[in-house]
Amino acid sequence: MREIVIGAAQMGPIQKADSREAVVARMLALLEDAARAGCTLVVYPELCLTTFFPRWYHEDRAEADIWFEASMPNAPTQPLFDRARTLGVAISLGYAELTPEGQHFNTQILTDRAARIVGKYRKVHLPGHVEYDTERTHQHLEKRYFEPGDLGFPVWRSQGAVMGMCICNDRRWPETYRVMGLQGVELVMLGYNTPSVNSQHGDEGLAKRLYHSELTMCAGAYQNATWVVGVAKAGDEDGHPLMGGSVIVDPDGMVVARATSEGDELLVHACDMDLCNFGKTTIFDFARHRRIEHYGLITERTGAVAPAP
Ligand code: CDV
């Protein structure tokens, strides 16, 4: 048995006016709860230090830099790293990264139990649009504020397991999990900010949006025989609702813990990494069963091209 007790630290809404310090205080409270529950790893949401700012249009792109962190840890997050080190709890959290070269990424990091950063992932699949879109009920300007991630989908060995990360929209793409699956991933950690309403299809409904979110994470877990921990930032941010639905999914694709609120809420599960072994050595033993001679289009072609009518 290779057990890691994991905390999925769903966070409730963060308003535009909330300071980083106030947010980190909430993250610290979740960390304390997680440590008391025996967790050695806590996963926080995407862009968890601020409101989900890509809904706000800044005509001057540079104005949006107020939402970005130029270093990590930095002054507001240092107390979280310090406490995590004292408690011996590894953390994974999402933030907007401004590099010394002036690049902007939607980033998630992983630390070890001594609070050293051991992994960094930059979001590859950026949803939304670049310019203000009058047709939408709300804006989703990730393509305006971020560059697509340039690190691929790496994995890291930590706490005796093979760990990888992805962020929000990445969870909807099977390629995300498969690239990590091909590196033997046993735990995929991801955070998300998913609006409760589809900005281009208001009738879709919350139930279907929650279903799609869970469906993709369960499928990714099952098809790659890996744990998936998906953590929402949820609730009403300045009049804009984000859905919850945080889950911990086992390597059979079954949900073993699910959030019941749209607020700060900790899910805890003792995840045995050895549960990945069965799927990885039987139905999803890639080395025996994959037929890569038929998969060329996956990397040769981006958009769908249907045969001529
Ligand atoms: N933050 C996100 O990536 N949100 C997307 C929304 C736009 C659909 C998501 O896939 O949940």
Protein described:
This protein has 309 residues and is α/β, with parallel strands linked by helices. The chain has one domain (3-300): Carbon-nitrogen hydrolase (Nitrilase/N-carbamoyl-D-aminoacid amidohydrolase), CATH 3.60.110.10. The chain contains 8 helices and 14 strands. Helix 1 (20-36) runs parallel beside helix 2 and helix 4 runs parallel beside helix 5 (206-224). The longest helix has 19 residues, at 206-224. The chain is globular. 42% of the residues are buried. The structure holds 3-methyl-2-ureido-butyric acid. One of its GO terms (molecular function) is hydrolase activity, acting on carbon-nitrogen (but not peptide) bonds, in linear amides. Residues 4-275 form the CN hydrolase domain. This is N-carbamoyl-D-amino-acid hydrolase.
At the fold tier of CATH, the topology name is Nitrilase/N-carbamoyl-D-aminoacid amidohydrolase
Q: Which parts are unreliable, with pLDDT below 50 for 5 consecutive residues or more?
A: none
Bound molecules: 3-methyl-2-ureido-butyric acid
Biggest beta sheet attributes: 6 strands, mixed
What's the number of extended β-strand segments? 14
Q: Please tell me what the overall shape is.
A: globular
Number of helices: 8
Do you know the CATH architecture?
4-Layer Sandwich
Helix-and-strand structural type: alpha/beta
As a whole number of angstroms, the C-alpha radius of gyration is: 19 Å
Keywords:
about 300 residues; alpha/beta; Nitrilase/N-carbamoyl-D-aminoacid amidohydrolase; 6-stranded mixed beta sheet; 8 helices; about 25% strand; globular; binds 3-methyl-2-ureido-butyric acid
